[in-house]
Amino acid sequence: MLKYDSFYFQCPHCHAWLEGRNLKAEMVNQSILYSDGKVLNDNYITTPQKMIMCPSCGHIFWIENPVEPLITFNKPDAEIYSWNTWRFFGVSFSDNKGRMALINHYKTFLRKSHYEPKKEIYLRRFLWWAYNDLHRNHQHVRLKYWLNGFMSFGVWHCNRKMILEGEKLFLKNYKDFTNNLKRLLVLLEKHPEEQIDLELPEIYRELRQFDKAKELLEKAGSRTHFTNEILRHSKWKDPRVFMVSG
Ligand SMILES: [Zn+2]
After folding, report:
1. Which of 139, 149, 216, 238 can bridge 233 by disulfide, Cβ–Cβ 3.0-4.6 Å?
2. Around Cβ 136, how many Cβ atoms within 10 Å?
3. From ligand 1's centre to the CA of 43, what distance in Å?
4. Are 71 and 97 in contact (CB under 8 A)?
């Protein structure tokens, strides 16, 4: 069970109150790291959401440094929009329809406005993760996964169908996926301070530029489990996102 501290902030346009949540890290039971840098804590993505679309008026605003006085930890005496109403723009991840809706949100934001590099990197990184969500956990489609007893046959079969359908959607949108990654790569190479650990070799790997990924990984100083895993998948010429640890 995840435990949070709630905080509250207002839409700068209509002044509606929204509830935000900070994860209490010490309460996490299971943390999963994926090769694209996405981390799930007890199945939830806990990377803070910086761009918010007000659930009351639709105004888009950014919260980059959620500190007082912009936010308060005291519950205001007013109607409050809960976390679920605005988190990931109210989209549910439980099916591929919701996953595509999230992708389309990011694509629309990127098409409609021009953002400073830091913000564009943020949006493109989340768009990348959203595309990968379509076939994340692809290893679960294998019969071995059911035989290992992680889930019942019914759940495994249903999950398998969703991942295979997601893989089809991923391939259908593959050109957009690579265009986004190529642009993200340019931005990150220009702004190395915004790079997450091993993000560049992973992007090259997912763009099927395996030699470049290997070159960057071999240059990286200390070897970790994460480095070795990306290297291994690059040698296999496997471009798909995968679970590093969890
Ligand atoms: Zn508003």
Report:
1. 238
2. 24
3. 29
4. no
CA of 106 to the centre of ligand 1 (A): 19
CA distance 240 to 183: 19
Q: Are 60 and 51 in contact (CB under 8 A)?
A: yes
Report how far ligand 1's centroid is from the alpha carbon of 184 (Å). Answer: 30
Ligand 1 mean position to 10 CA, how many Å?
Answer: 8
pLDDT tens for the 246 residues of the chain, in order? 667 888 999 999 999 999 998 877 666 778 899 999 999 887 777 788 899 999 999 999 998 776 665 688 889 999 999 998 999 998 987 899 999 999 999 999 999 999 999 999 999 999 999 999 999 988 887 877 777 777 788 888 888 899 999 999 999 999 999 999 999 999 999 999 999 989 999 999 999 999 999 999 988 777 889 999 999 999 999 999 999 987
- CA neighbor of 50 nearest in space, from 37, 65, 62: 62
Dist. CA 86 → ligand 1 center (Å): 11
| pTM of the complete model beyond 0.90 | yes
